[in-house]
Structures are given as structure tokens and as C-alpha cells.
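Record minuted for completeness.

…
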Amino acid sequence: MELTNPPTDPEVRDEIIDTVRRFVARDVIGVASELEHRDEFPADIVATMRELGLFGITIPERFGGLGLDLLTYVGVIEELAYGWMSLTGIVNTHTMAATLLMRHGTEEQCERLLPTMATGEVRGAMSLSEPDAGSDTQNISCRAVRDGDEYVVDGTKAWVTNGERAGIVALVARTEEGISTFVVEKEPGPTFEGISIASHVGKLGYRGTETVEMSYAGHRVPAANLVGEPGRGLPQILGVLEIGRINIASRAVGVARAAFDAALTYAQQRETFGKPIAQHQAIQMKLADMATRLQAARLLTRDAAERKAAGLRCDVEAGMAKLFASETALELATEAMRIHGGVGYTTDLPVERYYRDAPLMVIGEGTNEIQRIVIARGLLARSMEAPDRSVL
């Protein structure tokens, strides 16, 4: 089945985003650095996110979600990332798993699973990458073998955000027909009937939310939990990854905005040679370039979200948004540290956290090198399909 939400009224969208902005200012910004340095899961913050309905942003109202459009979603993600980027990962992989069901799941699967996902009572995760299969999805070796009314799953999955705490895992595995997707239902925790958390991944940034390696050894999945037709998993996942790339772009915009705001504020407070450094042309040029790149990244991200929400092809646009916004976040985090000077290198201010978080967006949901290939191939395909028309 294909579940889509109507466009959200702009006033409602602004109200939702403003509510999240106030929540971030009140409950997140003051504690984010402390929790991040301890690599502590933000249980209280996540509980409030559940109360706000953030786990059901894009899930239709008939299943208990808010039923909002993708443009509202990217605005919410930007606000969360502005306060603490790790929060967006908790929501994003959950939303991607829900999106897979909304687009390719059966009526029974949606009715059974989406209501508890909408409330955040059950959290979702995506299980795609493997130790030897990251961007190369064709190299997936995790197998699901049909055995009567069940599939038996064996293999190892890497980089699973939410993997331990998730109750629903969207699993990509190789079947006799090719690559297929399944819904794995489990209890939150390190082990569950043939599933084990092999290791927790230590990370430079993006701390406070778990990223794990999951091992499947004879885990049995009901055949009814196959999503769509067997062997059709790759196109299903590629469509969902567009949502992931738009999310990454939104995260990057949030981090870039936080870095810019910190630099702008500090430049007006810090004095050298008898005047605020904001009055020095060298700093002014940095601020001007930072603001321009930030706005361009935001507009690219919103354009991709609008196209995806409208059902238009957006592989190129999602790739462009992810590529540009992530590189912008990395550049602005670096420039913010330079503007802060020595104090920016300390853990007293969040600038060093932006600097550590930004590289994830360059790598996550397909490296930027892969994005360039996706963009180029998409442009060439469009040119061949309509040689007498502009590809953009």
C-alpha cells in the first residue's frame, strides 16, 4: 500500500516547528554537551519528544501519527539538530522504518505496527549496511532462507542506529529471489531469540545514541513480515534512502546554523585591538560566506523535500542537498572554531561538538563521493530521457 500525507497548512507547519524550537531551547541546549561528553542516552529528552508526537510526524493520523508533510519534517529535524544532532538520528532511522511500511507494507502490517511507532512506544531502526557492504548494497551477504511459513536469518549488520533499543528493525537481506526487506520484531535489549548486539561502536561525535553491530544467527522471521515482493528490496530501500538523505541535509543545516549563530554572537562579544572582532573585515568576510552557504543549503534541502512530498523524482535533488549541506556544516563548524580561536577548541563551548558532529553528515546515508556519482548518473539519465529539455 502507498500512504501519503496531504500538504501541511503553512500556519500549522510554523506552529509545529516553533514548538520544537522552544522545546530545544528549554530542554536540550543546556544539557546537550554534558550528556554528549558522557555518551549518555537522553532518556528524559526522548520522553518529551514522544509527548510532542515527534516519532509520528509523517505517520498518517489514521494510525495515530501527526500526518504532517516532509517539509514540516525537515523543519523539525533542523531544530533538533540545532540543539543536539544526536537527537535527529533517534528520529530519522525510526521514520525511515515507518516510511518503508507506509510505502510498501501491507494493510495488516501497517495496522499492526504503525500505531505503536507513531507514539514512540516502539522505536524503529534500519539494518542495511554490513561490515563488507556499505555503499555497495549489491554486496549484502546477510541471508534469509525460506523455511515453511518463516525465513531463517543469518548474518551481521553494521552501523545500526537505535539497534539495541528498537522494537522494530527494517532488515535488508538476500533471499533466493534477490535482495528483500523484512520487518524484524524484537524486544529492546542486547539479545533476542537469535539476535545479539555484537558491539557498540565508539564514535568521534554523534554520541548519546547507540550505533551497534547486530548479529543474526538462526533468527526466525514470519513470512508475513516480508515487505512487498521478495527480491524487490533494493528499489524499496533506495526510495527510503532519499528520505534519509534529506534528513541528513536537514541535520547538517541545523548544525551549520548552530555553528554560525555561535560565531556571530562571539564575534560581537570578543574584542581585539580595542573593538569587537566582528568589526574586522577578515571576520566579516567569514560571516558573510558562512551565512550565504547556510541559506543555500537550507533552500536546497527544502526543494528536495518539496519534490519528494509531491511524488516527483528527486534522486538528484536529494543527493545535491545532502552533498552541499553536509559540506557546509563541516566548513561552518571549522570556521566557527577559527573565529572563536583557542576557546573554540575547549570543551567549555559547544563549538567543538559541532566540529565533531559535522563529519557524520559527510559520510552518513552514502558518502559524498557516492552522492556525486548519484547526481551525475541522474543528470545523464534525465538528459537521455528528454534531450531537448533542461535536466534541472
Summary: The longest helix spans residues 233-269. The radius of gyration is 21 Å. The chain is about 50% helix and 15% strand. Residues 142 and 155 are 4 Å apart (CA to CA).
